[in-house]
Design brief:
The complex is a heterodimer of chains A (319) and B (520). Chain A has 14 helices and two strands. Chain A is an all-alpha fold and 319 residues long. Helices cover 32% and strands 25% of the residues of chain B. Chain B has 17 helices and 24 strands. In chain B, strands 6-9-10-3-11-12 form a six-stranded mixed β-sheet, with helices on both faces. Classes of the chains: A mainly alpha (319), B alpha/beta (520). Chains A and B meet through helix 9 and helix 10 of A and helix 2 and strand 8 of B.
Chain lengths: 319, 520
């Protein structure tokens, strides 16, 4: 019954292996690059990673239910484009911006609700349902703007992607808020615990009287909403609505969640791991850039990091 | 509405003039190819412990799953406290005050014991509902204390022992303030002390007029706790009896029926050399100590209750799981396969109980399923010699009399018995020396059952070692030249053909035989 200190240490490292990996990564890059461990660079990393990290928070909900959402990259484009188009309406800047943000995010909520409906009500596998959404929204994004980016957005809109609050980039602030709320919801609300229950044993959850279909729909709505929010932030940072924004984002986002220790089979993992998973990938990019590793090599390294993380996860499960 | 009594001893009422708490009337349920329940009636009085007994597959679990809203019946009605009740979902049942402990109910492994106990109704506080952890843990501690269990409520369920997990499931149902609690084999994983606690709790509940439906294979428990007993056989209600009026042999007779002891006339075959010897196999928690041997020409049956470790022991021989300790000898040579592939190469085959999910590839044809394990043997140049493949599979279709329009029929369109034959053909094609059959005739109708029995005998006669795991006692007695009976992960006794009777096997399997220790 009683555990030795060594057992505890092993257990801790297993549970928070991602944190250990993250710290090691920071130490290595600090050693090889003078510019790495500076306030300006680290702030920069959080800014660059924020879009990825915000979507990964939503993806964590989905993957905890043993699902997957491939549509997030396309939603980044679709929401950005819709937002940009609404901003170009002939109304004063302030209402146009509010309308743009709301419209962009609404696209994500709608898409998530549709995916969730197909998955929960019609028992279509998440992979297929969201693959369809991915194609639909990418196509819709190009269609809405005739394949060309939308430029000339109001200057005030730039604040979302490029502004700072007390020196902290606004997207970073959003990211922090999203993570605090997401952590709280997953750890301390009935809905959050139901997410774990559905992913851990869907039949048990159903027999316990949990409305599993509602839980499923809601996680896709959350994921879609957060992906669309990221799309709006990205549109602001690029001062344009780009129909090819967010290409392949879904894979990077899934990688962040998995590297963070959330099981693709559902029921196990959490938002803290995802945060470090996203940051690990962000820091890796940034650090390799600073050291001067070219981007093709970065891809290869990233691939191996994903493999390593999943192996660590397997070890955790069986060992 | 009333159950026609099949024997003079059957009773309809509990002696009191109360209205029944629960009345299930004319419940029928069919699954593709199997009738699970046919026109079953069941009555439960408030404060009564009503036991449901029957062999595996008799329909007990289906009946309580319908009661709990986990399944919908094809026909029939349920009334609770005199009022008709529509139980379409688990939520409906819980709202009506029906709590069910499902046999195959698994908890959510990575949530805590307390969360599992309150799953679906976590206590909250605040305007934005936030889980009230202290209240949650307090509630769990209280319910577990009722069961005499003091495990920490924040412990993850995955880290609990099977008995503790069972306690968590029982506590979960108590949490719903149910008027009626159905327990499907709650005792399978419990020790004697824990069982005493459970019985104490049941008596307290019945004192509060809660009705209990209790399913168990251990007949001793029915004597100890039951007021009335309803026997199900092949999905039908055979009769309801006062348990005080029912002795054990009568009960077993009702459970198994009488019309089966017809074909025990054949000769005991010459048992030649040993094909398989298994010594002290161990892999806790399900297999503790299993030894037996199989000789050329005989069919060796393994009997025992569900959960006694039969399947798990077979999986160790096949290397589907790795044994912790023990020895396996095949034709006198010690072997230690590490993967099923190695076991197959050594000549061992396992026909799993769940043939549809673990045995067959439903969307492939009869031919492809038969040849799957040894396509390499049919190689010609770079491809497959399809002419020979057709000949080989056609041979099996004829020899085993697989009823299929042609070789290209998808297996998904075959009946259960014919699917079983396809799996069998695949193993025969691998030139196996030893075949282990796990519930080979489960869900298969009587005619095909006989054919499969004849096939198994024939295999044994041709020198293949045949091991049959079965919960069907008549089948075990009919097929087995020797019968090993397991209980709680141990091979308790191996009976010769002449000493084996249904009662004897049941006694050993349920641990009620005189002179045999309780195992723990």
């Amino acid at each position: 019954m009683t555990k030795t200190i060594a057992d505890r240490l092993v257990a801790t490292v297993k549970e928070y292996g991602i944190v250990v990996a993250f710290v090691v990564e920071i130490l290595v890059f600090s050693a090889v690059s003078d510019h790495f461990f500076t306030v300006s660079n680290l702030t920069n990393v959080t800014l660059q990673t924020s879009v990825l990290a915000i979507i990964a928070a939503g993806m964590t909900f989905v993957i905890l239910t043993a699902g997957i959402d491939l549509s997030v990259g396309s939603l980044v484009a679709a929401s950005g484009v819709v937002c940009a188009l609404l901003l170009k309406l002939p109304v004063p800047a302030a209402p146009a911006i509010l309308l743009g943000i709301a419209g962009g995010i609404a696209i994500g909520l709608l898409s998530g609700a549709l995916s969730g409906l197909f998955i929960a009500r019609f028992a279509i596998t998440p992979f297929i349902a969201t693959l369809a959404m991915m194609t639909i929204w990418r196509g819709a994004a190009y269609l809405m703007v005739g394949g060309r980016p939308v430029w000339g957005l109001p200057e005030q809109f730039d604040f979302l992607g490029s502004g700072r609050l007390a020196g902290v980039p606004f997207p970073t602030v959003v990211m922090i808020v999203v993570y605090v709320v997401a952590w709280f919801v997953l750890a301390h609300t009935p809905f959050g615990r139901h997410v774990y229950a559905v992913g851990g044993n869907a039949e048990a959850a159903r027999l316990a009287g949990i409305r599993t279909n509602s839980v499923l729909v809601l996680v896709y709505v959350i994921c879609g909403g957060l992906a669309a929010s990221s799309g709006v932030l990205l549109a602001s940072r690029m001062s344009s609505g780009q129909p090819n924004a967010g290409l392949m984002f879904e894979l990077e986002v899934i990688a962040a969640v998995v590297v963070g220790g959330t099981s693709l089979f559902g029921g196990r993992g959490g938002i803290i791991g995802t945060f470090f998973g996203a940051m690990l990938i962000g820091v890796l990019r940034n650090g390799l850039n600073l050291v001067g590793v070219e981007s093709y090599v970065q891809q290869v390294v990233l691939g191996f990091v994903i493999l390593l993380a999943v192996m660590l996860d397997q070890f955790r499960k069986t060992g | 509405m009333t159950t026609p009594p099949t024997t003079g001893e059957a009773v309809q009422n509990h002696g009191t003039s109360d209205r029944p708490l629960l009345r299930m009337t004319g419940i029928s349920k069919t699954y593709p190819g199997v009738t699970a329940l046919e026109d079953v009636d069941l009555e439960l009085m408030a404060g009564e412990v009503h036991c449901l007994v029957g062999e595996n597959g008799a329909g007990k679990s289906t009946l309580v799953r319908i009661l709990g809203g986990a399944e919908r019946p094809d026909e029939g009605s349920i009334s609770l406290g005199g009022r008709d009740l529509s139980v379409r979902t688990p939520v409906d049942a819980l709202r009506a005050g029906i709590g069910v402990i499902y046999q195959d109910f698994k908890l959510v492994p990575h949530l805590s014991a307390a969360e599992n106990i309150s799953l679906g109704q976590l206590p909250t506080r605040g305007t934005v509902p936030v889980v009230d952890w202290p209240a949650l843990h307090e509630r769990a501690r209280g319910l577990l204390a009722l069961l005499g269990e003091d495990l920490p409520p924040d412990r993850r369920v995955a880290d609990l022992s099977p008995a503790q997990q069972q306690m968590v499931e029982i506590a979960r149902v108590l949490n719903h303030d149910a008027r009626l609690i159905a327990m499907d084999e709650p005792s399978a994983t419990l020790t004697d002390r824990e069982l005493d606690n459970l019985f104490g709790l049941i008596r307290r509940l019945t004192g509060q007029r809660v009705g209990i439906i209790y399913i168990s294979h251990r007949l001793q428990e029915i004597d100890d706790i039951g007021d009335r007993v309803t026997v199900l056989r092949d999905g039908r209600n055979v009769g309801t009896f006062l348990s005080a009026n029912l002795d054990r042999s009568n009960l077993v007779r009702h459970m198994v029926g009488r019309d089966i002891e017809d074909e025990r006339s054949r000769n005991v075959p010459d048992t030649g050399e040993e094909i398989l010897r298994v010594e002290h196999l161990r892999r806790p928690p399900s297999v503790h100590d299993v030894s037996f041997d199989v000789r050329r020409g005989e069919v060796f049956c393994i009997s025992g209750l569900v959960g006694s470790g039969r399947t798990e022991a077979a999986r160790l021989v096949f290397a589907a799981d790795r044994k912790r300790s023990g020895r396996i000898l095949l034709s006198g040579r010690e072997i230690d396969p590490r993967t099923p592939r190695q076991a197959i190469d050594l000549g061992i085959g396992l026909l799993t109980e769940d043939r549809d999910r673990q045995g067959l590839i439903m969307e492939l044809s009869v031919r492809d399923n038969i040849l799957l394990s040894r396509l390499t043997a049919l190689r010609r140049h770079l491809g497959i010699d399809w002419k020979r493949a057709d000949e080989a599979s056609q041979g099996f279709v004829e020899a085993l009399r697989i009823r299929t329009p042609d070789l290209h029929q998808k297996v998904v369109h075959l009946s259960g018995g014919n699917r079983q034959k396809v799996v069998l053909a695949r193993w025969l094609f691998t030139d196996a020396k030893l075949l282990i059959f796990d519930e080979p005739t489960k869900g298969i109708d009587v005619a095909v059952k006989r054919e499969i029995h004849a096939l198994l005998r024939d295999l044994a006669g041709r020198g293949i070692g045949v091991v049959v795991i079965s919960s069907d006692l008549p089948e075990v007695l009919n097929l087995g030249d020797r019968i090993g009976v397991m209980r709680e992960g141990r091979m308790i006794e191996i009976l010769g053909r002449d000493e084996a009777t249904q009662e004897r096997i049941m006694q050993i399997a349920t641990g009620t035989a005189s002179g045999i220790g309780s195992g723990q």
